[in-house]
Give the backbone structure.
Amino acid sequence: MTEPMWFEERVAPGVRIGYEANRILYQARSSAHEKAFIDTTQFGRVLMLDGAIQVTAADEFIYHEMMSHVPILAHGAVEDVLIIGGGDCGLAEEVLKHSHIKQVTQVEIDPQVVSLARSYLTSINAPVFRDDRFRLQIGDGAEFAASTEQRFDLILVECTDPGPVSSPLFTQKFYRAARGCLKAGGVLVAQVGVPFLQPLQFTATMRRVKSVFPQVACFQVSVPSVLGGPIAFAWGSSSLKSDSVGVEEITARFGAANIATRCYTPKLHQASFVLPRYLEEALKCAGRPGSQFPPLEPREDAAPGSP
């Protein structure tokens, strides 16, 4: 009898979770990532980068719907979108469901992630590659944000946890560059990890976002394949508050969009910004200096003497 094949994910120090693979579809290392596509019973096809799950065919709709539709419907007039990372292209697929989107520019550092996802995850990304509004650029997302002359209504940052490749996307320098790429009223949404298991990473990242954007919030969503509690998303904008539009207007916009969702609803949209007390306290910590964090420069638009 053949022994089952198991893949382990190191979720946090002292915490690992295993996934039984029915088949290994692909496994190799490149200059950017160690990659594996496996087929599982519970989650279908799974993409792992550097030993960490990035997307599963079974529950990707939860993550991608919330990350995309929340800011798009809150903004109300998004036309130009920048996605940094997101090589599986499931996020782009959700964004492109909105007919008023004129262009989606996606900057992914590893072309092999895109080509493999295009081969093994067609169930979540096939429409993207048939859509003339989609523009894929292979390159460093932080460098792109620092150098591009394009301006966007929405920037979505979907990358791996901080590491050799992705660490620049969690810096104050990057968030400043991203703010400079936004049109008036534009929004940045970035995945900032699982706060319960990664509290210092979450607090430090939110502190950097707060140092750059005047309007900052956090929303969350629970994804079955992610251990340790809800995934958090940072919201940053120069002017648009996350709660500036009520659920009635969000409902009207959602109806006008005429898109089918399996997770997102206007009521869930509103509720996702309601945080448990431990996250409220973490956000308070992110708003004040702490000895465990490096000093930060003040916001460029901050009044003299303000924190």
About this structure: Residues 97 and 259 are 7 Å apart (CA to CA). The first strand starts at residue 5 and ends at 12.
